[in-house]
Write a sequence for this structure.
């Protein structure tokens, strides 16, 4: 595969190329040319924010791409819904999209999850490419083949596994993000580090979140995060075993995110909710598997230096516990967690009681 000066293929995947670099424009154009994808068969999907700051430069980088069709959705998690999917199916029909069409999803996790789901279901499946523009989507949503939508007030309830034909990760897009969005994506990098090794976790603790687009060490950390998720997803694409590791922090994190989204106020970004989940589920690792308490306390302190603590009322806590009952990983009504024996040693299929979940949230809230 040909690439531009600032971009190189760095992540091995036996199904599709994952390209990471500063700028991905030339690599993307080269991929389209080498794979003989006619521009009339390319449809970009993005949201209204990303169109202005990220898609226009790509369209302007090639006179050919400037002729491509563009579909936009409204930004925000609440639009990751069956209503949006229905509208996009109708739009694809109107554009006469067929089995040779390629949908290029450029945006954050909402766009790549939603766009992948639309592509995988339209005409029983058309090809798609992911170009993540947020840190969160770079290290999580764009890689691994999981696509889907929220349903019934809970996260990612409807979906399937469908791989893109390529993923292009350009760190230049990080310049368009707020500090808050950078922190949101960084929570997934903390998760990957906790699952992977003590040395990687130590590096994430020391990294500065300023000027990340220019920070070569940060780019290397992105690469390591992508490599870790890619390795797990390739070995267990349907989440029958070790892919469950990637749910660490997400059982409680998703419940927190859903609670605040359903209340319509105090909404958190995905990574901010996952940061809460990481603290709670590491505490559960201590209680259930003997994870060192001193490390739980140190991790909590470090995370709360980066993420503002959220205060939950007693009804909120009960709402979080209730929402964990809807987690898609549960078995026979039992709440299923990934936990850590120690950093770098995750285990899956740990069944936790509602009482223990309450206790973990109270640990998070304690000063």
């Amino acid at each position: 595969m040909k690439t531009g000066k600032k971009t190189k293929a760095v992540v091995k995947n036996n199904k599709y190329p994952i390209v990471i670099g500063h700028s991905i424009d030339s690599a993307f154009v080269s991929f389209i040319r080498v794979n003989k994808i006619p521009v009339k068969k390319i449809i970009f999907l993005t949201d209204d924010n990303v169109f202005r700051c990220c898609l226009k430069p790509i369209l302007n980088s090639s006179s050919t791409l400037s002729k491509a069709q563009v579909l936009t959705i409204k930004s925000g998690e609440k639009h990751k819904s069956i209503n949006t999917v229905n509208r996009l199916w109708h739009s694809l029909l109107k554009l006469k999209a067929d089995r040779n069409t390629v949908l290029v999803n450029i945006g954050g996790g909402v766009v790549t999850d939603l766009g992948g789901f639309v592509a995988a279901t339209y005409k029983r499946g058309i090809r798609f490419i992911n170009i993540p523009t947020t840190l969160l989507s770079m290290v999580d949503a764009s890689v691994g083949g999981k696509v889907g939508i929220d349903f019934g007030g809970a996260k990612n309830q409807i979906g399937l596994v469908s791989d893109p034909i390529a993923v292009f990760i350009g760190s230049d897009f990080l310049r368009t993000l707020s500090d808050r969005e950078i922190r949101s994506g960084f929570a997934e990098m903390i998760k990957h580090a906790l699952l992977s090794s003590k040395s990687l976790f130590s590096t994430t603790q020391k990294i500065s979140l300023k000027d990340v687009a220019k920070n070569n060490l940060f780019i290397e950390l992105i690469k390591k995060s992508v490599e870790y998720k890619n390795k797990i997803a390739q070995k267990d694409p349907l989440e029958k075993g070790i892919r469950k590791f990637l749910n660490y922090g997400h059982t409680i994190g998703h419940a927190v995110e859903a609670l605040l989204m359903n209340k319509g106020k105090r909404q958190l970004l995905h990574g901010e909710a996952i940061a809460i989940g990481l603290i709670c589920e590491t505490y559960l690792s201590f209680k259930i598997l003997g994870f060192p308490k001193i490390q739980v306390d140190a991790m909590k302190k470090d995370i709360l230096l980066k993420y503002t603590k959220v205060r939950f009322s007693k009804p909120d806590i009960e709402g979080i516990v209730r929402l964990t009952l809807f987690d898609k990983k549960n078995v026979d009504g039992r709440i299923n967690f990934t936990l850590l024996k120690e950093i770098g040693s995750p285990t899956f299929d740990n069944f936790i009681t509602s009482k223990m979940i309450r206790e973990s949230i109270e640990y998070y809230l304690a000063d």
Observations:
- The longest helix spans residues 216-235.
